[in-house]
Inverse folding.
């Protein structure tokens, strides 16, 4: 929804074109229409449609006749005819789609009294227009102060200057009729311009000002929704929503327009269901409908004497009981039908998904229990003790072998000494 000048900069901070929805590229405007016929050429002999759609501040759009046959494109700033003087706006649509929009809004494109488009705005026109737009917030604040001093029960929500700065239109909301004659006199003296007061509804106020809804998106009325249909509380009842005004009300204080978006689907689905006030006559007692689930196609009933216990039934079962009640026949109890539903659920085949019943952690290493950890620790201890005993045995064998070798050396040395002594004792030969 933002143009190139409204996008974020290199540092991640929003640039902001500071045009408040009047960008020259028409990328962040309200109620923008996509011209899907812009790339198609007209047949031979056909002239382009001589009317254009021009948008002014916020969501105000009007149609003008291009009597001068100016070559215009979406985003051009133009000077248009006004009741007195001229106004400055921006072209939002040209070509054959303008005719479709005029038919949709019930504007006769053959009417000779259709206002004209004068010219493309010059730089001087744009400068005057921009100065007027800069004064709007200050004047709106001052006008609210004057209204409070006069004790008028009204809220001035928006101010729009004419392009030539000769007139200002004040949009306000009020519950009852307001006598603002003195207010106009005081504002004309304070601002030195012609004043026009225009009362709008609360939905039109939200459309002009815009904002972010509870869904996180821009308001539908300020981006694409043009016709405001009445929204009643029955739309919330059909969709089984709690009647909480804080959740169902929009920024305009009225019921949200989006409650009508899916209402037709719910109404069609409820045709296969019995009414909400259905009563079932059983031998055990009278039963009332407590809840209906359209998506699961289930209804919950409870006895009048025991409202805390709910029994789940299908629409076909409820219709079967109603047919028996029409014949003045009573069923034994609701528990029989509830038990049948439980049996059906148990006997239902459970289909596996494509992956199967494997979990996401099937590739992870299995976690060991405490008993297995203790066993592994004991094994390590026993193996460590066995290794020590083996080492001790090896050392003992080595020591024993050294002792034996020493003893052998001693015995051999003693034998050599004995032989030497014997040789000395023998007599010498003559």
């Amino acid at each position: 929804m933002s143009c190139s000048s409204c996008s974020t900069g290199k540092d991640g901070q929003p640039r902001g074109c500071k045009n408040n929805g009047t960008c020259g590229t028409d990328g962040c405007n309200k109620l923008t229409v996509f011209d899907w016929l812009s790339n198609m050429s007209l047949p031979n002999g056909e002239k382009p449609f001589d009317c254009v759609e021009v948008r002014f501040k916020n969501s105000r759009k009007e149609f003008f006749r291009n009597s001068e046959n100016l070559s215009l494109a979406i985003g051009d700033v133009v000077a248009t005819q006004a009741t007195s003087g001229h106004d400055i706006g921006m072209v939002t649509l040209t070509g054959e789609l303008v005719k479709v929009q005029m038919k949709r809004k019930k504007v006769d494109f053959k009417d000779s009294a259709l206002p004209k488009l004068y010219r493309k705005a010059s730089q001087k026109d744009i400068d005057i227009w921009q100065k007027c737009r800069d004064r709007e917030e200050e004047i709106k604040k001052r006008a609210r102060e004057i209204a409070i001093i006069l004790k008028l029960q009204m809220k001035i929500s928006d101010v729009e200057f004419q392009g030539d700065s000769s007139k200002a239109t004040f949009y306000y909301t009020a519950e009852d009729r307001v006598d603002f004659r003195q207010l106009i006199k005081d504002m004309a003296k304070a601002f030195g311009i012609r004043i026009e007061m225009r009362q709008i509804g609360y939905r039109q106020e939200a459309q002009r000002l815009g904002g972010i809804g509870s869904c996180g998106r821009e308001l539908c009325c300020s981006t694409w929704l043009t016709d405001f249909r009445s929204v009643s509380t029955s739309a919330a009842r059909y969709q089984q929503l709690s009647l909480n005004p804080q959740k169902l009300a929009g920024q305009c204080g009225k019921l949200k327009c989006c409650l009508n978006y899916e209402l037709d689907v719910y109404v069609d689905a409820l045709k296969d269901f019995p009414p909400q006030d259905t009563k079932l006559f059983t031998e055990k007692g009278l039963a009332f409908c407590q809840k209906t689930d359209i998506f699961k196609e289930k209804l919950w009933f409870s006895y009048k004497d025991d409202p805390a216990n709910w029994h789940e039934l299908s629409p076909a079962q409820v219709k079967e009981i109603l047919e028996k009640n029409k014949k003045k026949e009573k069923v034994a109890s609701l528990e029989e039908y509830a038990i049948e539903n439980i049996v059906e659920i148990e006997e239902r085949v459970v289909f596996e998904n494509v992956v199967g019943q494997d979990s996401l952690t099937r590739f992870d290493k299995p976690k060991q229990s405490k008993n297995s950890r203790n066993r592994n620790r004991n094994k390590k201890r026993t193996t460590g003790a066995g290794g020590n005993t083996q080492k001790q045995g090896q050392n003992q064998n080595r020591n024993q072998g050294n002792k034996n070798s020493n003893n052998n050396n001693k015995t051999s040395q003693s034998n050599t000494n004995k032989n030497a002594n014997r040789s000395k004792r023998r007599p010498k030969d003559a």
